[in-house]
């Protein structure tokens, strides 16, 4: 199953010419794929010695199937080194998964809302204020779900906007975050909706530690009928992409 990433972020020096660092990156990526594919869609890993230790994290969206998760992780691990030329900090986002490695252990367990990929639908809703209110309601529900202990860091729900249109929302944190750090990450992400999303038909903000998204069609699993038909993956031709840098 071939997948396209929705965005990537590369930073720091390139280790492309350092065979030991390259070997460590390749090991970490392979280990993440193997562990997360069989371990419920989340894993961390590390390899290397001294100042060239590489740390990694991989996570699938909590609602996708094990087979889709494994396929997404395999694609991410294959694309990330070439996309980022083995840079010291490399991250790649897909609809179904996220993979990161870095020459720094500090990112594991910490809420990171520095770098991110934001996708904004090019179409706006007619009644902007009412729509933003509906978005606010659904995001309040899903962020509370995701930050609750025992939720696995995932929330999804819908809110009626008009008799014929529902707003579908999803929130997720990486599973290395404690509930409070998850809540902080999601709060920061949702607070950016006003800046980036306005009353657009759909918007998603993907950070390294959490992601929030709403659409006027079903996009999370199980896909429900109605709402103009569900679409599990993002049609990138209908979204403007913004890559946020620290």
UniProtKB/TrEMBL annotation:
InterPro entries, per the entry: CRR_secretory_protein, GNK2, GNK2_sf
Ranges for domain Gnk2-homologous: 3-106, 113-219
Location relative to the cell: Secreted
Keyword Secreted: yes
A GO CC annotation given for this chain: extracellular region
Gene3D superfamilies cross-referenced by the UniProt entry: Gnk2 domain, C-X8-C-X2-C motif (3.30.430.20)
Keywords: Repeat, Secreted, Signal
Keyword Transmembrane: no
Family: Belongs to the cysteine-rich repeat secretory protein family.
Designated name of the protein: Gnk2-homologous domain-containing protein
Species this protein is from: Eleusine coracana subsp. coracana
């Amino acid at each position: 199953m071939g997948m396209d990433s929705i965005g990537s972020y590369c930073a720091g020096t390139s280790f492309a010419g350092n065979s030991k660092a390259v070997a460590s990156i390749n090991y970490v990526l392979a280990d993440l794929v193997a562990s997360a594919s069989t371990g419920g869609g989340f894993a961390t890993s590390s390899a290397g010695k001294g100042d060239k230790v590489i740390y990694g994290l991989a996570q699938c969206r909590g609602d996708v199937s094990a087979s889709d998760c494994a396929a997404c992780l395999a694609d991410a691990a294959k694309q990330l080194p070439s996309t980022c030329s083995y840079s010291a900090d490399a991250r790649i986002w897909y609809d179904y998964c996220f993979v990161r490695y870095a020459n720094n252990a500090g990112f594991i367990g910490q809420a990171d809302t520095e770098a991110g990929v934001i996708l904004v639908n090019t179409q706006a809703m007619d009644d902007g204020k009412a729509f933003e209110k509906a978005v606010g309601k659904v995001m309040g529900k899903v962020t509370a779900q995701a930050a609750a202990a025992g939720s696995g860091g995932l929330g999804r729900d819908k809110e009626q906007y008009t008799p014929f249109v529902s707003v579908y929302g999803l929130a997720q944190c990486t599973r290395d975050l404690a509930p409070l750090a998850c809540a902080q990450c999601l709060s920061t992400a949702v607070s950016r909706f006003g800046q980036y999303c306005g009353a657009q038909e759909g918007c998603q903000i993907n950070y390294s530690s959490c992601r929030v998204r709403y659409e006027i069609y079903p996009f999370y699993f199980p896909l429900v009928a109605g709402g103009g038909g569900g679409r599990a993956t993002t049609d990138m031709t209908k979204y403007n992409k913004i890559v946020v840098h620290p």
